[in-house]
Amino acid sequence: MSDLDELIATVALLRAPGGCPWDAEQTHESLVRYLVEECWELVEAIEAGDRAEMIEELGDVLYQVLFHADLAAHTAGEEFDIQDVARHMTAKMVSRHPHVFGDRRAETAADVVAFWEDLKHDEKPHRTSVLDGVPQGMPALALADKVIGKAEKANVTPSDASGWAVPETEAELGAELLALVASARARGLDAERALRGAIRAFDAEVRDEEARRAG
Questions:
Q1: Which of 4, 11, 112, 211 has the highest Cβ tally under 10 A?
Q2: Is residue 106 part of a domain?
Q3: Where is coiled-coil annotated (predicted)?
Q4: What is the pLDDT of residues 50-108, one digit of tens each?
Q5: Do residues 7 and 69 lie in contact, with contact meaning Cβ atoms separated by under 8 Å?
Q6: How many domains does the chain divide into?
Q7: Distances from the Cα of 154 to the Cα of 69, 83, 141, 173, 214, angstroms
Q8: Do 45 and 56 form a contact (C-beta atoms < 8 A)?
Q9: How large is the average pLDDT for residues 149-168?
Q10: Each residue of 108-132: pLDDT tens digit?
């Protein structure tokens, strides 16, 4: 038995009758908070460059994946397991990399990104906007970056974006953002909520522009 197989068996044992009562009571929904926390702890370990911490936090994220898969395997109407998850992911990666598994040519990372959008569009033809599929639960700053990046593909940018002086370095940018949040807090303003509101307004602007062009 490989180390991975042993971990899969451990998850199954903990959730089986006679195992851990807490594990047995969990649902996909109850586990969301732990998945989010583990992902952020992994990000912190990566940013710290700590190998031991990365191994631990990658393991915690992997455990969440295995937990959800085992839960599904024993939930009526879901009935998939980690092998189904792996099989689906392998097929997806092969499909998304025709330059490796097929005859399409890609010399640079930019070439790959250019035709990924076409591949994703073929996979999800029901999406009508470049913003469809963007997870709205992301932290506001990460969400803003994601939405702006997607909107650029539709040649739409925030109307007042060009009026700001951009700091030269990420350190300067970080300090400026921190100062802005501090100033907002001092005035009783919620920076997270304010940015989400601005993102929603920009989202509507992008979709309106897409509809105008389509019509």
A1: 11
A2: no
A3: none
A4: 999 999 999 999 999 999 999 999 999 998 999 999 999 999 999 889 889 998 888 89
A5: no
A6: 2
A7: 37, 38, 21, 27, 12
A8: yes
A9: 82
A10: 998 888 777 777 777 777 877 889 8
Tokens of 12: 């199954």
pTM of the model: 0.74
The domain boundary, picked from 65, 80, 95, lies at: 80
State the Cα–Cα distance between residues 8 and 14, nearest whole angstrom.
Answer: 10
| Locus of tokens 């509809």 | 211
Assigned token pair, 41: 């702890």
Last residue of a domain, one of 62, 80, 98: 80
CB 202 within 8 A of CB 209: no
Task: Burial-class residue 131 by CB neighbours within 10 Å (0-12, 13-18, 19+).
Answer: buried
